[in-house]
Amino acid sequence: MDTSLKAAAVVLDSVSKSYGPVEILKNVSVSIAPGEVVTLLGPSGAGKSTLLRCINHLETISAGRIYVHGKLIGYREVGDTLHELSDREISAQRRSIGMVFQSFNLFRHMTVLQNVMSGPVHVLRTPKVEAAALARDLLEKVGLPDKADRYPSELSGGQQQRVAIARTLALAPSVMLFDEPTSALDPELSQEVVATIRSLAEQGYTMLIATHEMAIARDFADRVIFMVHGEVVEDVPARSFFTTPRHERSRQFVARHAG
Amino acid sequence: MTVAASCAMAEPRAVRVKHRLRWGAWLLSAIVLLVTGMLLVAAIRAKIMNLEVFLTYFTSEQVLLGARNALILGTLALALASVIGLVVALMRVSGNPILAGLSATYVYFFRGTPMLIQLLFWFNALPTMFQRLHLTIPFTDIVLLDAPTTTVVTPFVAALAGLGLAEGAYMAEIIRAGILAVDKGQRAAARAIGMTEAQVLRHVVIPQAARIIIPAGGNQYIMLLKSTSLASAIGFLELLRIATDIYSSNFMVIELLAVAAFWYLVMTAFATAIQTVLEKTFPQR
After folding, report:
1. How far apart are alpha carbons B12 and B27 in whole angstroms?
2. Structural domain count, chain B
3. pTM for the whole structure
4. Strand partners, A237
5. Would you call A125 an interface residue with chain B, using a CB distance cutoff of 8 Å?
6. Same domain, yes or no, for B260 and B220?
7. What was the ipTM of the complex prediction?
């Protein structure tokens, strides 16, 4: 366990999460290797979003442990007790975990450039000139160099999501979490976002992507984790999930979405 | 067929468009203008005001001092109220039941009692409660303040405390509304890039809440500038107090009330200008 823990990018070790009597995650154990692209599939309410939000401690867990590059997230283990870290310590851990949201969540009062600069400037204390240069590079990378001085409300949904990806990349994260990045977009706009995510996959980013977009799962994901009611039903190479789904629920899911 | 044919054949005919007359609005305008005119005529006929007296006092040294005092008191009270309001609002949204309860109680008391009572209370109660104010820096011998309370709690200090504390309750509700209006996703995104709670507040929540806080805050500033007239009750030399002092000796009541009213209008224009500038600094996006 110890060596695999250090080698893996993300490890969820028997993670459970409940809101009162409602169990959102039930004893989830998952390990993701560096450079791996994993899609989280499953019906709405399966706990995909919650799982992602637990990995950067936006949600607290009820039991289990989460490690990112060998570091226990959100807690300090003393004896047999987990003590929650301070606000400052948790914030420091989040820097290396990038997250992209379904509703983009670009800072509305900042320009596109300021959005991409916000992490380096406010969190890493990078000098503004340097941060601006980095931000322009990243906007170039996501294909939006001419939008630097626009405000988010002036951009299409697909453009906003690409800016959000650039904002996340500005902190050079070691892991990227995508929470249904294309669900708020129409098919055409979602294609441009998928293309951006695909190019990140080709650059070797470690990514965990909760999605309903089968193109991501089929075309460039290494693995599929299929969840139902807070449990991992299947955790298999992407190809075999679509060709030979093992469980009844995944067979139904593939039949409905692959059609 | 025949219809189509006749349409195609007919000469294009010029048609005049005549819109319905909104006679109700016009009638109302006429009535309002008439009533206003009658009031003006009555006022001029009765010679209620001597313009010369008005102009003399408008720029008299005493009146200018009163206007200045009112502006300073109102502005400092707004600053104090904003600080109190921010703290009380943050307590309310903190999620801690005791802090939230304290905050709700504060708002209930200070919003629920007349400002005039609060002013009189601070002016009279503080010196009774504490005979002498004695303030030192803890664990040192340095004395910051040591004086009889009556000399420290001047009418100005009591008025500032009273107005600031009362207004703080209103500002707390305004700031809370502003904070609650910021989308939860904005906060999640800020925390996800590694901002601490304080940074989230400073860089994301407050700038976005400002769009909502500023128009309501501007309104409160105008209210406060006018509420400084309450301080006349505890002997603070503000605009209204000075005006009443003057007319109680020369009996030019209307003229001096008009002078005071005019200066309040000038202050309101000033507050409105500041509000406009701030709204442009934090535009709706």
Report:
1. 38
2. 2
3. 0.83
4. A223
5. no
6. yes
7. 0.92
